Every structure is written in C-alpha cells, then in structure tokens.
UniProtKB/TrEMBL annotation:
Membrane topology: Multi-pass membrane protein
Subcellular location field: Cell membrane
A biological-process GO annotation: transmembrane transport
Protein name as annotated: Sugar ABC transporter permease
Keywords, sorted A to Z: Cell membrane, Membrane, Transmembrane, Transmembrane helix, Transport
TM region positions: 28-46, 95-116, 128-148, 189-208, 229-250, 282-307
UniProt record similarity statement: Belongs to the binding-protein-dependent transport system permease family.
Gene3D superfamilies assigned: MetI-like
One cellular component term from this protein's GO annotations in UniProt: plasma membrane
Keyword Ribonucleoprotein in annotation: no
Domain ABC transmembrane type-1 span(s) in chain numbering: 88-303
Species of the source: Candidatus Alectryocaccomicrobium excrementavium
C-alpha cells in the first residue's frame, strides 16, 4: 500500500453506515411501530438474565444478588440427587413427547380447510376452532372438570347410563397425560393452523392447474404440490417446537394437579413453583429452571443442525 493513501475499506464502511442511517430515517415510522415490542422483549426477556446467576449463589434477599455468596453447582447437584428427580423428568418427558406427537394435527387441519370450496363454511369452521385459544386456562380446566369429573362429570354420567363404571380421569395418574394433551389439541389446533393456512396461500394456482391437467387427484395434489410448498414452514415450526420440548405448561398442569395424580402430574414447572414461591428456595428453583432451559436449548441446537444438513432449512 502506498504511503499516505487511506485504506480502501474505510470509505466503504462509512458509506454503508450512512446508507443504513438513511434507510432508518426514511422508515422511522416502522421503527417506532416495533419499538414497544423491542422494549417489552428487553425488559422481560433480556434484563432478567442478570438474575440467572442466583442459580450459582446462595441467594439471600437482604444481601442482594451480588452480595450473596457463590455456591457453584451445589443446587444443580441437589436437584439431580433429589429422590423424585427421575420421576419429575419422566413425567415432563412423557407429557412433552405426547404433545409433540400431536404436532401434525394442525398441519392436517390446515390442509383440510384448504380443500373446502365453500368460503362461508370455511370461515365458520376457522372461527369455531380459533375460539378455544382465547379462553382463559382457568375456564378450560373448569370445563375439563365438568366433562371428566368422577362424581358428576358429563362423560362419567354417560358411561354410567350405558352400564359402565365411572372412570377417575382426573383423580388417576393413568389418564392425566391424555387429558392434558388432547384438551390442548382441542384448544390450540385451530390457532396453530393459521401459519400453515397462510403458507398454503402461496401455492401457485398454475401449478395446481397443471397437476390437474396431468390427471392428478386431490390427494396427489396435496402430496406433491401443497405439502412441498409448506415444508419449509413445517420444518421451522418443528425446530421451534423442539426448543420447548420440556416446557410443559405450568398453568394447566397446576390447575389439574391433585394429591391423587401427583405421581404423574408433578413436572419441572410445578416443582419449580413449589420450591421457589412456596418454599422460598430461590437459588435452588433458579437452578432447576436453568437446568430445564439448558436441555431445551440443546434440543433446539441439535434439531436445527440436523434440519440444516438434511433440508437446508433452519432458523439460522
């Protein structure tokens, strides 16, 4: 490089920076629009990360986070050595994998809706299936009790009228996972199908018409045209779903939980609530929660890497 000549990349960087600022200035309304979401994510997702360190400390409220002594991996070791550790992990895994197995239902439902020719009927079905998503979880659990309660539940009343014995759906751990998962399918099936319905809107009408001219029936069009079109969306949603593989919902589990089904309903989320808020063991509960998060992140990274290698579709 000649002496006294400035590096060639400096003006390029300056120009690039100025171009970025110019684009932001031109579209400032859009940035203002997303500002509340950015502030929300920062306050409730990033800022609390500072408190993760209490999982490695013997946290005392009067000393604060930085004033509490370090404990290393003591709380993690305590959880792994807890007598019910494997039972809690098994319960969490069973419900999570059971829920994961229902992943294709929303896809099938979206494909079904896409085949409906009557727009009025299609919109009616969509509205009916979307509604449960907006019902409070407390109301959902009360509805489950009304239908499946042993003493006066609707299903048990029908079984008794048919000459069968009443079944302890909510009082027995045998049925807890099934009640949890299928009620969740009913509540979220329609809402979960929205993104696939949107993806199906991108299917080329010319491609479908060409398939029909070639003699393809509806099933063949779905298999060879519709599904390949939405496959990247399905893979992305599958990866994100794997990121919460052990994230069993606390609210429904806690509301359906009782002493009779505790052996199968005690999951990581409810155990964390018990030791953290009820027993005030903040460091221990933080360690349990972080343990769960690490497993979920591990699944997310692994599935994302596999998806990227197999299909070249990934979230990064």
């Amino acid at each position: 490089m000649m002496k006294g000549v400035a590096p060639m990349h400096a003006p390029i960087r300056l120009k690039s920076s100025r171009g970025t600022l110019k684009r932001i200035a031109q579209s400032w309304q859009l940035y203002v629009l997303i500002l509340p979401a950015i502030v929300y994510i920062f306050l409730f997702n990033y800022e609390p990360m500072y408190g993760v360190q209490i999982a490695f400390r013997d946290f005392r409220i009067n000393r604060g986070i930085t004033g509490s002594p370090w404990a290393g991996l003591k709380h993690f070791a305590r959880f792994v050595q807890y007598p019910d550790f494997w039972n809690i992990m098994r319960n969490t895994a069973v419900i999570s994998l059971y829920s994961f197995a229902t992943f294709p239902i929303s896809i099938l439902f979206a494909l079904f809706l896409n085949e409906l020719t009557s727009e009025r009927y299609k919109k009616t079905v969509q509205m009916i299936t979307y509604m449960p998503h907006f019902i409070s979880m407390v109301v959902i659990c009360e509805m489950i009790d009304i239908f499946f309660g042993r003493s006066d539940g609707f299903v048990n009343n029908i079984l008794e009228l048919l000459g069968h014995e009443r079944v302890a759906f909510l009082e027995s751990g045998r049925y807890f996972a099934s009640v949890y998962v299928w009620s969740d399918v009913w509540q979220e099936m329609g809402w979960g199908a929205i993104i696939y319905i949107a993806a199906l809107a991108n299917v080329s009408p010319e491609l479908i018409e060409a398939a029909r001219i070639d003699g393809a029936n509806r099933v063949q069009i779905i298999w060879h045209v519709n599904i390949p079109t939405i496959l990247p969306t399905v893979i992305i949603m599958l990866i994100l779903r794997c990121g919460g593989i052990l994230a069993v919902g606390f609210e429904k589990t806690y509301l359906l939980q009782n002493p009779l089904n505790l052996d199968t309903s005690q999951v990581i989320a409810t155990y964390t609530y018990k030791i953290g808020l009820l027993n005030a063991e903040y460091s221990y509960s933080a360690a349990v929660g972080l343990f769960n998060t690490i497993i979920n992140v591990g699944f997310l990274l692994a599935v994302n890497a596999i998806a990227k290698r197999v299909s070249e579709v990934s979230i990064w």
